[in-house]
Amino acid sequence: MEFAELIKTPRVDNVVLHRPFYPAVEGTLCLTGHHLILSSRQDNTEELWLMHSNIDAIDKRFVGSLGTIIIKCKDFRIIQLDIPGMEECLNIASSIEALSTLDSITLMYPFFYRPMFDVIEDGWHSFLPEQEFELYSSATSEWRLSYINKEFAVCPSYPPIVIVPNSIDDEALRKVATFRHGGRFPVLSYYHKKNGMVIMRSGQPLTGTNGRRCKEDEKLINATLRAGKRGYIIDTRSLNVAQQARAKGGGFEQEAHYPQWRRIHKSIERYHILQESLIKLVEACNDQTHSMDRWLSKLETSNWLTHIKESLTAACLAAQCIDREGASILIHGTEGTDSTLQVTSLAQIILEPRSRTIRGFEALIEREWLQAGHPFQQRCAQSAYCNSKQKWESPVFLLFLDCVWQILRQFPCSFEFNEHFLIVLFEHVYASQFGTFLGNNESERSKLKLQQKTMSLWSWVNRPSELSQFTNPLFEANNLVIWPSVAPQSLQLWEGVFLRWNRSSKYLDEAYEEMVNIIEYNKELQAKVNTLRRQLAELETEDGM
Amino acid sequence: MEHIRTTKVEQVKALDRFSTSNKSLTGTLYLTATHLLFIDSHQKETWILHHHIASVEKLALTTSGCPLVIQCKNFRIVHFIVPRERDCHDIYNSLLQLSKQAKYEDLYAFSYNPKQNDAERLQGWQLIDLAEEYERMGVPNSHWQLSDANREYKICETYPRELYVPQVASKPIIVGSSKFRSKGRFPVLSYYHQETQAAICRCSQPLSGFSARCLEDEHLLQAISKANPVNRYMYVMDTRPKLNAMANRAAGKGYENEDNYSNIRFQFVGIENIHVMRSSLQKLLEVNGTKGLSVNDFYSGMESSGWLRHVKAVMDAAIFLAKAIMVENASVLVHCSDGWDRTSQVCSLGSLLLDSYYRTIKGFMVLIEKDWISFGHKFSERCGHLDGDPKEISPVFIQFLECVWHLTEQFPQAFEFNEAFLLQIHEHIHSCQFGNFLGNCQKEREELKLKEKTYSLWPFLLDDRKKYLNPLYSSKAQRFTVLEPSTVSFSFKFWRNMYHQFDRTLHPRQSVFNIIMNMNEQNKQLEKEIKDLESRKNKQTDGVPTKELLHSIHPESPSLKTSLCFKEQTLLPVNDALRTIEGSNSADNRYSDYAEAFSKSEPAVVSLEYGVARMTC
User: Residue A94's domain spans which residues?
Assistant: First the structure.
């Protein structure tokens, strides 16, 4: 097997592992095709089991013949290995470097991983578009499923099945696709049952400098409006950026051609700006020696929380159009694969109670991120430590998870899942034994035959034993629209992710456990009271007879 | 009442300070002898105590009326619009008079009457007994004695009558030392750590100038270090920045010269003075009061205000003190300039880290009585109870409360009390409703006859104990379980619930804390009910129930007849009340926040607020 060539030294003894908040451990280091394993000498227990794909960057240092490798992980953890022997150390370092940056997707761990658990429900079939559509079709007949993209020919980044207005035929869709960036013609993202308003998403219209128009496009989006109603187009770029896009063949909807629509520009940052923001934030969080002033200024200049505020504000605006103004909306940026999806998915968290349940949230990620063609492979190839900055790397999805966490903080009883669930999703997006987040879109995934060759994350997550860890004990279904506050005083640094490895969470974890105990005890007592009352009532009626 | 010309104004509008939409509530404004009351059209009442008013401002007349902005010491800011300028002017003038009293006797505490008799009132004052507290600490003992030197306030007016000093410190030594210390505040015991036999002592700065020395003072310090049988050296912590301490030397004051004192280790810890703290908080509040505040402005405001830096400095000092005692077993003498601001902060916070008793409700009251009230923290001047020098006002005590809050955040199970308790105490240092915080030292309080004329706050807080309990509190901790907080900068956060406690739109919509607190309460009720039901069941199965017993079951459990289809909620109606969600009605002003945010930054937008579409691009 190819991996053997990459592993020059598979095993080194007397390696010392240093981690913050744990005592140093001495043990034997082993390299396998996909893991770095350290077992302590005493009882052969594993102290560390690290997936190569989780490694973002490594540094090496030498003092005499003692080598030190500092491993920086995509989940922001930093560990240190002291390896005796210069040659061993160099070999290990070069192996890690090679194994953590494999070129071919099919060499990645998900293709080799064999689950140790029984699959109760195959996650690859948990969220089929047909099933999702059934949820809507009972409420409206204005929409239909289209199989136009079955061969991924019309839009390479769309799934084979999309939801479009009933009155628009596939021929028209084909024309609209040529008018929208990446062929991403407007499709249904969300249907608000309360008032029948919808969120649609697409790529930018290709108007260019000469103001090209497309009648079918106009017809398509107008078909979603009720008589006499207006809709809103939310462009996730600033007006300036949108105008500049015309020079490159892109653009925005001219009001003359879309008289029933009002356009709002709500700028959300993307690409390298987010990536740089994340790098700065993680750097600030990792330095324990910062003075207060320096810490606050680093936190500020990272701009991470500004991006959080921007995304949440845009999502609230979208939700406001739907729920308060009773208006349908179309959301797009340039490609419609990043900021667009942040807005459509966050708006659903705000509007739709189902998306705040575990299954509903999984369905949301499946629909609005995976099937909608967010390029996970490109965006999440590297994390905050890597030096080789590629312009397509960007923590868009992490930003989305952070926004969800902010809403969860403000409505701690309205979500079926807890913070831990969000953290686990973050980990699996960057490095996973499951195939779910491989590839950039459904077309790539189907070519890779992920369904046949890898396991779905949902197959594991949705097992009762795992679900219990992800369940929020405070959850009580709440059918309301939840409006978060976006004031800076209400937004917080997501400590569970960004300070996770930099502070001891012992006391916080204990307090959480105590909270769970109180809730469990409450349930127990209530059940007991009910049983006793019932028994007493039965005794009473017996006596009565 | 002579200051009140208008007692009632109708059609007054109240604006939300963070709402950007000019939406307002209309209601009626009432002015009473003690409070300003606003009742809005939903019959919601807002009571503002005159003593809580920090400033009243009348803004320029607008078309809708005359704006009146009231800033309160508990960080409430209200913005009224009074339709007629005449009324506004009257209220403005009345509030100016009523919020600034010239005499203690005019403060609310002297008229507040909670319907208690004299015996009850006196009992209330006796709830916290400092003699008992020193006994709990383990003094007097073979090394520490109660000194009667200050029994008549002759040596130090701002100290309490009863002071604990080393056994070997004779009266001449005390008198000599007091003459060498600012305001006569010579070194005395603040906390005795029984486990290590080390002590926290406090005093004011020495009048050393550039070279002066005092043998009695040197003796007294030596006596303190000798009172610790384990470790002969002691720390002297000067809580000021070194530069400030040096500047004081020119005025004949200063700090201890290590060469003159045997066995001392001198240390500066650099907490800024009351003036720096005052302007720091002012800056912070200014920034946070801005409408449509951006994240960057928020953080750069936090940074430039320096507030969290100051809080961290106080915390670091307390940790230094606790470590000296726990790790080195050394006694510590703490002082600043006068020894009633920074010294109180560091001594009390240090004791709280060392002794879990101070983390209980009662213990926290004792701590405040001891290190703040009895040792002469000038509450009346620092809180501006009377119309006086605004330069004396400073949030020193608030800073202490904030440090405690940070500890409760880091150690959620270590405190018997919750955040509401801290907020309530803060409310009352300014309210002047109770006598505890009136005056600047014990002598002044005795002259005011506070114990005869006013009530003590503590029994009232204890009566409401349930509200202030931390449901996660773990009482298993040993007495000397030391808290070792992290003071890495990222451990400090903005205390939203203090500085925005009345800005409800900024808060989480559901409170985990309240749910758990109510659940804990409910669990106790359920336990009781189970016991009750079990005993009834036993009686039922033991024999034929009496007629009375049957009767007693029926009215309490009406749902039992339909026991097959009952739901948990019908049995336990409390459950519904546990969870409330705010902010889902259309009057919610966060709604407009989003709209504002885009309409300001982008000209080419639709103003959803008014339902009118305007395009300008």
Answer: 3-102
Question: What ipTM was predicted for this assembly?
Answer: 0.93
pLDDT at B480: 77
Helix (H, G, I), strand (E, B) or coil at B10: strand
Pick from A336, A331, A334: nearest CA to A319: A331
Q: Where are the alpha helices (DSSP H) in B180-306?
A: 215-226, 242-249, 274-288, 295-305
Residues ≥6 apart with Cβ < 8 Å to B429: B379, B383, B397, B437
Name the catalytic one among B201, B336, B383, B441: B336
Say if the Cβ atoms of B520 and A518 lie within 8 Å. yes
Region class of B420: left (phi > 0), else alpha (psi between -120 and 50), else beta:
alpha
Query: What is the DSSP-derived secondary structure letter of residue B546?
Result: P
User: Quick one: which of B362, B425, B356, B361 has its CA closest to B397?
Assistant: B425
| Structural tokens at position A293 | 């002033």
Number of domain units in chain A:
3
Selected for mutation to probe chain B from A298, A311, A413 (highest B CB count within 10 Å) is A413
Q: Clarify whether residues B134 and B276 are in a common domain.
A: yes
Query: What does pTM read for this prediction?
Result: 0.91
Asked whether residue B612 carries a pLDDT value surpassing 60, the answer given is no
Alpha carbon A357 to its chain's center: 15
Return the structure tokens found at B291.
């409408």
How many C-beta atoms surround the C-beta of residue A469 within 10 A?
A: 12
Q: Which of B488, B542, B553 to mutate to test the interface with A (most CBs of A within 10 A)?
A: B488
pLDDT attached to residue B476? 76
One domain, residues A197 and A62: no
Q: Containing domain of residue B91, as a range?
A: 8-100
Number of domains in chain B: 2
Last residue of a domain, one of A102, A131, A154: A102
Tens digit of each residue's pLDDT (9 = 90 or more) over B217-273: 999 999 999 999 999 899 999 999 999 999 999 999 999 999 999 889 999 999 999
Could you tell me how many helices (H) and strands (E) chain B has, helices first? 24, 14
Do residues A416 and A518 share a domain? Answer: no
- Which residues pair with residue B15 across a beta bridge? B24, B79
* Share in percent of chain B as helix, strand, coil (round to 5): 45, 15, 40
